[in-house]
Amino acid sequence: MRDRLTRFFASRWGIVLVGAIIGVLGPVLQKLGNPANMGICVACFERDIAGALGLHRNAVTQYIRPEIIGFVLGATLAALLFREFKARAGSAPIVRFVLGFFAMIGALVFLGCPWRANFRLAGGDLTAVPAILGLVLGIAIGVWFLRRGYTLGRSLRTPAAVGWIMPLTMVGLLLLLLWQPVFSEGGPIFFSEKGPGAAHAPLLASLLIGLLIGFLAQRTRFCTVGAVRDVILMRDTHLLSGLLALLVMALITNLALGQFKPGYAAQPVAHSSTLWNVLGMVLAGLAYALAGGCPGRQLFLSGEGDGDAAVFVFGMIVGAAFAHNFNLASKPDALAEGVLKVGGPSPFGMGAVILGLVVCVALGFAMREKKLVAKGG
Amino acid sequence: MVVVDGRGLSCPEPVLLAKQAIEAGKFPIKVLVDTVTSRENVRRMAQFSGCVVEVTQQGDEFELMLRKK
Predict the structure, then answer these.
(1) Domain total for chain A?
(2) Which residues of A326-348 are buried (b: 16+ CB within 10 A; e: fewer)?
(3) Is residue A111 part of a domain?
(4) Is it the case that residue A27 has pLDDT exceeding 60?
(5) Rounded to the nearest 5°, which phi and psi values hold at B64?
(6) Do A292 and B20 touch (CB under 8 A)?
(7) Can you give the pLDDT at residue B60?
(8) Which of A111, A188, B6, B41 has the fewest CB atoms within 10 Å, i.e. is most exposed?
(9) How many domains does chain B have?
(10) In the predicted model, is pLDDT for residue A15 greater than 80?
(11) Is the full-model pTM beyond 0.90?
(12) Which residue of A has its CA nearest to B24?
């Protein structure tokens, strides 16, 4: 039974089914209360968690998102049930932290990760089109480095404790969410009272959907960045078929729920400063490709014992804190009395994207090992 | 026999190394991996490239033997 399930999940139909399920559940979460075109956004939700903990004090993006907790713990559950939980670490963790940091900067200049780029497009937000082209370009640059021997080196087996740090961190976050303790007057835990941080589906619905997606994605290795990377690298459309299933089903679900509102300017929690949508996603795509997977995939990996993926996730959370504390995250478009005020990043945000691109390209050249190639025997 | 050691490497490096070995054309090729993800990815790529793949499990590691059809 277990082997048959494993084979099904590894098949084309398996990844398509899981992509389709995620595609339906994202818009459903919006219907249940998540922000518009933000059914699931790994970057935004990690940023909300950073805010809830007071790592940044942007009052409208603070909430401990149960979806993130569910992603990790669902993957842990799947890995344990299918005997794939394996503690491992040691593949250039500090580089992964830096990649996670800048992946978050890029995502918050665009205002979404690759997951949300697809949900935005499926909701009719046409600014996602150039952003996705930017994402593809960023991943293509990553592939260029991979072809030239880029590697973060090997991870090693570790004591189980290493693999449990991230799942237990998520249990801790869940307890903070359930109890909502106040640690000091006017202090954390913070929960937004207005803005996107205040928009959320009921806790149990978010958690259960997160757990389901975490479970299914761990089994199928669903990855929004691997989807593009594998096509460029080796014409392999396996993961892409899952991503396309997500996009199509999210579009259909949005149409059915009356959530499809096509347009370019003033889309929900989005800006129409095209250049920075593109460059933000070039940076994010490059950072994710160099780290081996999209932000969702990093959560699933960290759930099955990958300590390096966990470091990447922490890099993203710290990146989110910096993005808001240092005014790097973009402002969304605003409509005031019928007049459109185009949003976008501050000059600091623009500088951070450029810095991120420089750092990622430098890492792409620097992280090389010659002796990994096959040896005769 | 050519040996490709993909153990401990992140996605997609094991597949990339195996693919390079296939393109070099010296069969059989033995690929070592230590995650189910890598096992499935290498298997898919090798079958797509026209290889016969035989998988054996050794502890929690996998050995894939790739032969030309």
Answers:
(1) 1
(2) eebbbbbbeeeeeeeeebbbeee
(3) yes
(4) yes
(5) -110, 125
(6) no
(7) 86
(8) A188
(9) 1
(10) yes
(11) yes
(12) A374
